[in-house]
Design goal:
51% helix; alpha+beta; 337 residues; 9% strand; two-stranded antiparallel ribbon; Helicase, Ruva Protein, domain 3; globular
């Protein structure tokens, strides 16, 4: 465990100074002058028993980051076509390093597959897409990300204030320094990029050292990802997506890209609309139907239950397809060595 992350809240003295009116407090973006700060401090006191001075000191030490607000407005899966988005994540290097990750952590991955029922290559692909196997865990202070988005991003301010609450609670429980932890622009943390509420719900101590460390411990990260997928009903060995072809001019009636991730059509209905499916599936089976811009031509896919489970990790079909395809390529490359 890195000493800079897991200290027994030795920053309390510094935070107290901030709360008492230090120079840092006077320059802060989230002092009591911000209209949403005082109610938040009160909620943390009433709901979780936090001392008001402690919370106000933390918020005063947080910094508003315009770069975070800019980043959340343009995620890659919303602004890039499929073929460009896929090219970011499906590379020879990411596949090769995925194989290396599987080899290095073979025992933990095998145990996770056995205990949680999630394939080793799927766990690996999630970590590979999220942080390049731990190489890019994010450089924003979590406290800055969650305060910026919780207090100055109206579209999802309530959500990020809830995450800020969860973050302060977990740092207290795990005796972490809330000013030292870093993550993504959205406050996602560690190898698997869990948001604070996901950490609370799904992170596990997979190596048995009595610490749930997804920041520096890949074994805990592996178990935590596997637990997340099990709790969202992943089916070991089941298909994820099936390629299809289309004919005629009615096939678009079956597309669900604009209807939300919960939209479903039966295989029988899709066949009547001109979908030609590459493997036998029962006519009554409910699936998601997608068309992707492949660059030189359109690609058509049916998403099955396991693809939907991946979207529980990130609510993007393109994200889910990238994870699925990367996992298959890692498995193939590993089996050929």
């Amino acid at each position: 465990m890195q000493a800079g992350i897991f200290r027994h809240l030795k920053t309390l003295t510094a935070i107290a100074l901030v709360a008492c009116g230090s120079t840092l407090a006077s320059a802060a973006d989230y002092s009591a002058e911000h209209p949403a700060v005082v109610p938040f401090i009160k909620e943390m006191q009433v709901e979780h028993g936090f001392a008001p001075g402690y919370v106000s000191g933390l918020l005063a030490a947080a910094e508003r980051k315009q770069a975070i607000l800019d980043a959340i407005s343009r995620p890659a899966e919303r602004v890039r076509p499929w073929h460009e988005y896929r090219a970011i994540f499906i590379t020879d290097r990411r596949i090769a390093e995925g194989v290396a990750f599987m080899q290095t952590h073979a025992d933990a991955l095998a145990r996770a597959e056995q205990e949680y029922g999630v394939e080793a290559e799927v766990i690996t692909a999630i970590i590979g897409v999220e942080t390049f196997y731990g190489g890019n865990k994010g450089s924003h202070r979590v406290i800055d990300a969650l305060t910026t988005l919780g207090f100055d991003y109206p579209p999802r301010a309530d959500f990020f204030r809830r995450q800020l609450k969860a973050f302060l609670v977990l740092t207290r429980e795990q005796q972490m320094d809330p000013l030292a932890l870093t993550g993504s622009y959205a406050g996602a943390m560690g190898y698997p990029q869990f948001i604070p509420s996901s950490y609370q719900a799904f992170a596990v101590d997979f190596d048995g050292d009595d610490t749930v460390d997804i920041w520096t411990n890949p074994v805990d990260a592996i178990g935590s990802v596997a637990n997340y997928f099990r709790e969202h009903d992943w089916q070991l060995g089941a298909d994820v997506a099936v390629a299809a072809k289309v004919t005629g001019d009615r096939f678009a009636e079956g597309l669900t890209l604009e209807q939300g991730l919960e939209a479903r059509r039966s295989i029988g209905e899709l066949r009547e609309l001109g979908w030609q499916i590459g493997q036998p599936l029962p006519a009554e089976q409910q699936v998601m139907a997608y068309a992707f811009d492949g660059g030189d031509q359109m690609q058509y896919w049916l998403g099955l239950d396991n693809l939907y489970v991946i979207t529980r990790y990130n609510r993007s079909v393109m994200y889910a397809m990238v994870v699925h395809q990367l996992s298959e390529l890692i498995r193939e490359a590993a089996s050929s060595e």
